[in-house]
Amino acid sequence: MIGVVAAQSDLAWVAEFFELFKTPWELATPGRRYRVLLSTTDVTDDHRADLWLAYGAAELSLDRRFGLRAERLIGADTIDWNGQTLPLYADAARFSGDLDPDALRCGPHACSYRRSCGHATIRRFGYDLFAEVRHLLTHGQPKSRAAFPTLEFHIELQRTCLQEAGVPYVEIPPRPHGHSFVCCLTHDVDFFGVRRHRGDSTLAGFFLRATAGTVIDVLRGRRRFDDAARNFAAALSLPFVFLGLKRDFWHPFDDYARVEGSRASTFFLIPFKARPGIAPDGKLRRRRSAPYGAGDIKAEVAKKRVTSPTEFGVHGIDAWRDAAAGAAELREVEAATGENGSGVRMHWLYFSADSAKKLEDAGFAYDSTYGFNDAVGYRAGTAQVFRLPGCQQLLELPMAIMDTAMFYIDRMGLHPRQALERCRAIVRDMQRFGGALVINWHDRSLAPERLWGRSYRELLSDLDAADVWFATARDSVEWFKWRRSIRFTVDEAFDRVEVTAPEPRAGLPAGSIQIHWNRPDERSDEMHFAGNPLTVTL
After folding, report:
1. What is 2-171's CATH number, 3.40.50.880, 3.90.1150.10, 3.40.50.300, 3.40.50.20?
2. Angle at 170 between CA 166 and CA 171, to 5 degrees
3. Which pTM value belongs to this model?
4. Tens-place pLDDT, residues 364-393
5. How far apart are CA 243 and CA 426, in angstroms?
6. Which superfamily does CATH assign the domain made up of 182-193+250-478 to?
């Protein structure tokens, strides 16, 4: 059991942090001795612990007790820990004096120290943990730091401290039992059928990219000759496609069925045709409108539903800024698909500070907008599902990998080999930390002129080898919601932990209970957990 001392204004972030680091905790009771005490404010002598993790950028009475000074570190935006870079977004402090060689560091400055006081071990860290959590789950990281699973590093630092101190503890890891992590294959459907684009700018852009643009890509080494031949053939076939003599090559349901096979996937559909919505600057962006609406493709949706495990969500237009508009978009897509409980990802990833509450009021089951248009990685510093600020129910399924972010020249502009290496780095993170890897491969990305199917197939092959659970976005969120429902009851001596939860919904995998022992011959153990009450003796 971890006893927590934090400011009243931080209690919501404390609770959310321990939904991500799913281990027993409570607000510390003065006079009670804890195995672990975690504090982000100055603590009185009424609080006692075997291991004390004291966070904060301001000087604490603890520092003065040990004859150390905590000085504000101007410009401290990263610290080094265990050979890893840990980005910071709030204030930091440096400490002077006789410090540990393994201290967290910002350049030459030590940002942590370790001391013993009687039977207690004290670990002091010169930053505010819950201020960092607040920033990551509200503002998020800039794209320059997208590669860092920063919030997971904060959790890993906690685990390391507990294990080094020999504290036994119980954790529910963020992955289904028997799998390394969850994977959601998602697809934003911005277009559906090239025949809907007679003489418009989209068709003109396609033709230029399939011909002149393809030649340039070949000369730059970014396009293979066989792909170039496919693009030229598609461009030349346009008259026959419009006459109905050749297959329309922008049919994403068919394309993805061939590549994904029996893997589950999620398609986000535009609710209304020819409706661009309002941009954050209050203007209309005509290019944002789509030439189809969900109601136009009912037959294709019905066919897709019976051929593979598929979910349909809303590719929102104005839902991010208006709850009534969001409710109308939700009704339109659910009427077209026959599904209830749909989630949303905003078209062009529009979002604002109050969008989460508007999406919750509109009735969406979850959101999956939190990601980057021009980077891949961790905007929230984690790939776990989390609760959006200001919401009671709405959960966020953050997006980590998007094809257009990687391949568009005016975004990351990566060569396919570079893109695959970026994706593999994220897969390695996921194997280490768990979570839900959300991939967004757009509707046209397997078809001419993009032809990003080879990269997608290679990524799927890597994921198969990683032993992931392929889930729809909705099922992934439901599994994490079930994990959030798990409760711990700890006895007075902190020796016995009872773990309880409802059974997972039918079709969802079980979870695991990971037990970290204080035994020289056995460091950890993992047990299957499907909601049946289980008591662990530490």
Report:
1. 3.40.50.880
2. 115
3. 0.96
4. 999 999 999 999 999 999 999 999 989 999
5. 44
6. Glycoside hydrolase/deacetylase (3.20.20.370)
